[in-house]
Design a protein that fits this description.
Elements: E1 5-7, E2 14-16, E3 36-38, H1 43-55, H2 60-63, H3 69-74, H4 76-94, E4 103-105, H5 107-112, E5 119-123, H6 133-151, E6 159-162, H7 166-178, E7 182-187, H8 192-200, E8 204-208, H9 218-230, E9 233-234, H10 244-262, E10 269-273, H11 278-292, E11 301-307, H12 312-327, H13 342-355, H14 357-369, H15 374-385, H16 414-424, E12 428-431, H17 433-447, H18 457-467, E13 477-481
Parallel strand pairs: 5-13, 6-7, 6-9, 7-8, 10-11, 10-13, 11-12
Antiparallel strand pairs: 1-2, 1-3, 4-5
Helix pairs in contact: 4-7, 6-7, 6-10, 10-11, 11-16, 12-14, 12-15, 17-18
The structure holds zinc ion.
Zinc ion (ZN) binds next to loops.
Length: 490
């Protein structure tokens, strides 16, 4: 059987999944060591996915088991015993388990946007705890259980997560179903309804006060300290500390591809909202793996968006494009001084992004055409070797947005995501609050899906990308409505 392994982009070291690590052992602070799980080439995984999809199961972690490391480690029978036990607990405690979520064509929404191309929406609002986050952590739970079985351990280690809401909730549901103790590091102003739901699921809620910007998320720092001091395991929905959550999140992209395949449809572009980056990175990875395994002939363009109240990923994208433009002799009128007042630098970045879509498009098209060239690859090497030149914690004004679920200080999963955006010819977009509000209203009005402002913000990205001409009205586009709107719940 061909090996699944974990690859580090900085030290180029490969690890076997049997090692039970969650992040690179040689990780150093000023380098990018986020592991990526690599599937073997060859027909084994693709045949497995095709066959199990055709056989009709619509339980996510059954039908896509060939992409899941725990299945690889345990083999079919033992994996299914673990999966069934957790699924039973989820059904009993949460009244649902992980099933393939609906993918619907939304002609009314498309026509409200003046689109002629098909518009597809993947609806995660009915998933476990009302968002996509649980499926990320389900892969981690299965991995933990696989390691425990292989080592013959009876003790379940304590888990930790940092989050402002949905990720902690998804983690709480999955940890409870698996019989694990979970500590959630959350902001002290966490939504009381979310805190109550966490406590109801047996999670220990650790409230952390907010500090200034520039040093990173205090919840993240507290989470890190707990891992180091207590030996707890990272049950985080971010790939830098926990590669395995990306494998779980990738099931979302896989489901979309298989559902499109059933209808003989394809998409030209996806637009994905980005906070910590795990969602978009997971979907991008699913598409890249599907290309590698022959499910699709070309990547869709992978576009991402962030609110103007906090956009560290868009800044990194523009800095990388600027570097490539400079080395290839193209005009790119963005000069960013890391030593100057960040508020001013960020304002200038927004102004540039709005004023020069032509320069951005020209550089993005060049990168897509020349992705494998030494020039582009040298800049990608710099992203891994000197990540601080491109990505650092948000240092603008205190982050704020109606889409508050994607205001992470740092886009933890920026590296692999940015590669995929560049490779696919995708673009990034800084969202105005007006567009976020309009997308939220339109999404509910035209689709009836009870999606929250954060979960609908990919639509805001589509609205702006269409207005700037980066996405054509006739293209087929996929969106991910990722969070249930609790403000409208009874
Ligand atoms: Zn490494």
């Amino acid at each position: 059987m061909l090996k699944v392994f974990l690859k580090c982009p900085s030290c180029r070291r490969d690890y076997e999944i049997e090692t039970g690590i969650f992040s690179c052992l040689d990780s150093r602070p000023r380098e990018e060591h986020t592991l990526r799980r690599m599937l073997p080439s060859g027909p084994e995984v693709s045949d497995g996915i095709q066959t199990s999809w055709a056989a009709g199961s619509r339980q996510t972690f059954d039908v896509l088991r060939h992409s899941i490391s725990a299945h690889r480690l345990l083999g079919h029978d033992r994996y299914h015993r673990v999966l069934e036990r957790v699924a039973e607990q989820l059904l009993r405690l949460e009244d649902r388990d992980f099933r393939v979520t609906p993918l619907t064509e939304e002609p009314a929404l498309a026509s409200a946007l003046g689109r002629t191309g098909r518009l597809w929406v993947k609806d995660e609002t009915g998933n476990v705890t009302g968002s996509h986050k649980g499926r990320h952590l389900m892969a981690t739970l299965l991995y933990l259980e696989a390691l425990r079985k292989l080592k013959g351990e009876s003790i379940k280690k304590v888990l930790a997560i940092y989050s402002c809401g949905n990720a902690a909730l998804g983690a709480a549901a999955v940890a409870r179903a698996g019989g694990y103790e979970l500590h959630a590091f959350v902001p002290e102003d966490v939504d009381p309804a979310v805190a109550a739901m966490l406590v109801e699921r047996g999670t220990v809620v650790e409230k952390i006060p907010r500090s200034g910007t520039g040093e990173g998320d205090p919840c993240y720092l507290a989470f890190q300290e707990a891992l180091n001091q207590n030996g707890w395991l990272p049950f985080a929905c971010a790939g830098n500390d926990n590669w395995s959550n990306i494998e779980g999140g990738a099931t979302l992209g896989w489901e979309m591809m298989m559902q499109l395949g059933d209808r003989c449809e394809r998409i030209d572009s996806v637009v994905i909202q980005v906070g910590g980056g795990a969602l978009a990175r997971s979907i991008a990875q699913a598409f890249e793996e599907a290309l590698q395994l022959g499910f699709i002939n070309a990547l869709p363009r992978i576009h991402v968006c962030q609110p103007e109240g906090g956009f560290p990923f868009v800044r990194a994208y523009l800095l990388v494009l600027g570097e490539i433009a400079c080395r290839s002799g193209r005009s790119f009128d963005l000069s960013y001084d890391q030593g100057a007042d960040p508020v001013v630098q960020l304002q200038r970045t927004v102004a540039f992004a709005r004023a020069r879509p032509d320069q951005i498009q020209e550089a993005a098209a060049f990168v897509q055409r020349s992705f494998d060239s030494p020039l582009v690859q040298a800049v990608l090497d710099d992203m891994a070797g000197k990540p601080g030149h491109f990505m650092w914690p948000w240092d603008g004004s205190a982050p704020h947005s109606l889409a508050h679920g994607i205001l992470d200080d740092l886009t933890y999963d920026w590296y692999h995501l940015l590669r995929a955006v560049l490779r696919s010819g995708g673009r990034t977009e800084i969202l105005t609050e007006d567009t976020i509000r309009s997308a939220y209203e339109k999404s509910q009005h035209h689709t009836g899906i009870p999606v929250c402002p954060t979960g609908a913000s990919g639509l805001a990205g589509l609205i702006q990308l269409q207005a700037s001409g980066a996405i054509d009205r006739g293209e087929s586009v996929g969106l991910f409505f990722t969070g249930f709107d609790r403000s409208k719940a009874e």
